[in-house]
Amino acid sequence: MHRLTTQQRRDLRAIVADGGFFSGMVGVGESYVPAFVLAVGLGDVAAGLVATLPMLAGALLQLTTPWAVLRLGSYRRWVVACACLQALSFVPLVVGGLAGGITLLWVGVATVAYWGFGMATGPAWNAWITSLVPPEIRPRFFAHRTRIAQGALLAALLGGGLLLELGRARGRELWLFATIFSAALALRLVSASFLASQSEEPGLPARHKAMDTGRRSAWLRRPGSRRLLTYLVAMTAATYVAAPFFTPYMLGPLELSYGRFMVLTAAAFLARLAVLPFLGRLVERRGARFVLVRGAWAIVPLPALWLVSDDFYYLLAVQLVAGSAWAALELATMLALFEAVQDAERTRVLSIFNVANAAAVALGALLGSWIFSGLDGGAAGYAALFVVSTLGRLATIPLLRHAPAPEAHVAAEDVSLRTLAVRPSAGAIQRPILPTVEQTRPDPPDRA
Q1: Residue 390: which residues within 8 A CB-CB, separation 6 or more?
Q2: What pTM was computed for the model?
Q3: Most exposed: 10, 100, 232, 351, by fewest CB within 10 Å?
Q4: Which among 117, 124, 110, 104 is positioned nearest to 59, based on CA atoms?
Q5: SS3 of 168, please?
Q6: What is the rounded distance in angstroms from the CA atom of residue 296 to the CA atom of residue 397?
Q7: What values do phi and psi take at 421, rounded to 5?
Q8: Half-sphere exposure of 250 toward its Cβ, with a 13 Å CA cutoff?
Q9: By three-state DSSP, how is residue 432 classified?
């Protein structure tokens, strides 16, 4: 039994609290930005693009993290500074809600800053947190932290939806948007305060190899890894032809209330959480490739299913299937990405994946916007997006034929995920907490 010092106990409590307040910000803030864009009259295309294009800025800014951390000489300073700046990204949205309007330029500034500073914390936070949580307790500790974070996210998501529904009924919709964005700002600042309270060994970044992202990754030189990355980029691009337009579709043509929009979004997220333990056991028994291929097939028809019926309970069932399918694909993908990667290389691989994924998101979103605008929007535009996305996902399946087949000994149930955003089309955007990936197995020999 590992005996914790007083400082370690304080750090662990602060890590859990940070996770809860950060997730609350995600649930009540970024999740409702596309709905805000629609409410101020900026249009369906703008609502789709602000939920996607800024992610590319975030992925690119994270590449500066190693340089910034070394210049500051501290993981903590960089992470806390970025967290505070991410909180301030909500200021233009709060002002716009109170003023009754906002330009697309200011929405763009806010969302680019949100994703830029948010994703810039990722590599440093993962490296820092590895030094704070003793290896003996990582699986149990991060599982507990994840449960707290998930509960906070769901509570914030539900609360935000109910407040907006109340605001719409009373004719104060934009004022309530300002209220929930103010809450998101405050939650992130509280999260930053807990980050600032955590300890850090002097000179840790200079001694730590986890932030060494300058060399070309040995992982990327492996043919199987390149094939898997090619599939992921193609699949993501095909997915995001339609994914940015789910919120406009739900609040526009389907005329859903904020309450029902919130329920459908939460349903996909809850389905994802519910099936992950089962998927982890399935990976243990059958291997990551088995789950990967079935998840890839399961996501293919999802966009087209939205064209079958507008009955709320039918859409609820579709969302439950969607959350489960995406959970299978993304868990298997993550395990396939990290199976052959040594601990010191995982931050670098995650950075490569984030940039490639964000570029594919931007490409798909721009293509979707072009198709939608070319058809002058409306029912025909949405139908075209959902059909093109379905066919595009189907076209990526052959790319899996030569993807790597990871062994099944990875302890998938120990891996914890950090939720960066909630999405109606997939349940969430999640990334692994790297210290829990490191616990899965000893490093393999470097075969590069």
Answers
A1: 300, 301, 302, 303, 304
A2: 0.89
A3: 100
A4: 117
A5: helix
A6: 7
A7: -160, 155
A8: 28
A9: strand
Q: Where are the alpha helices (DSSP H) in 62-197?
A: 65-72, 75-88, 91-99, 104-132, 138-169, 173-196
- Concatenating the DSSP letter of every residue in 5-71 gives PHHHHHHHHHHHHHHHHHHHHHHHTGGGHHHHHHHTT--HHHHHHHTTTHHHHHHHHGGGHHHHHHH
Q: Which of 322, 350, 355 is CA-nearest to residue 415?
A: 350
Grouping H, G, I as helix, E, B as strand and the rest as coil, residue 216 is coil
Residue whose entry in the numeric block shows the structure tokens 């919120």: 247
Contact (CB, 8 A) for 435 and 138:
yes
Let me know: does 174 contact 40? Beta carbons within 8 Å. Answer: yes
What string of H, E and C letters represents the secondary structure of 222-286? CHHHHHHHHHHHHHHHHHCCCHHHHHHHHHCCCCCCHHHHHHHHHHHHHHHHHHHHHHHHHHHHH
CATH fold, domain 9-202, is Growth Hormone; Chain: A; (1.20.1250)
Question: Does 1.20.1250.20 match the CATH number of domain 219-439?
Answer: yes
What CA–CA distance (Å, rounded) separates 23 from 428?
A: 12
d(CA 358, CA 60): 9
Tokens in use for 39? 């409410």
In terms of Cβ atoms closer than 10 Å to its own Cβ (0-12, 13-18, 19+), residue 303 is buried
Going 131 to 134 to 136 to 140, the CA torsion angle's sign is negative
| 448 residues of the chain, pLDDT tens digit each | 468 888 999 999 999 999 999 999 999 998 999 999 999 999 999 999 998 899 998 888 888 888 888 888 899 999 999 999 999 999 999 999 999 999 999 999 999 999 999 999 988 898 899 889 988 888 889 989 999 999 999 999 999 999 999 998 888 999 999 999 999 999 999 999 999 999 998 877 766 655 555 555 565 666 566 778 888 899 999 999 999 999 999 999 999 999 999 999 999 999 998 998 888 888 888 878 888 899 999 999 999 999 999 999 999 999 999 999 999 998 888 777 766 566 556 677 777 888 888 999 999 999 999 999 999 888 899 999 999 999 999 999 998 886 655 554 456 666 788 888 888 888 888 888 877 775 444 444 443 3
Domain with CATH 1.20.1250.20 in the chain: 9-202, 219-439
* 218 SS3 class: coil
**Tokens 């349940």 belong to residue:** 427
Phi/psi at 432 (nearest 5 deg)? Answer: -70, 145
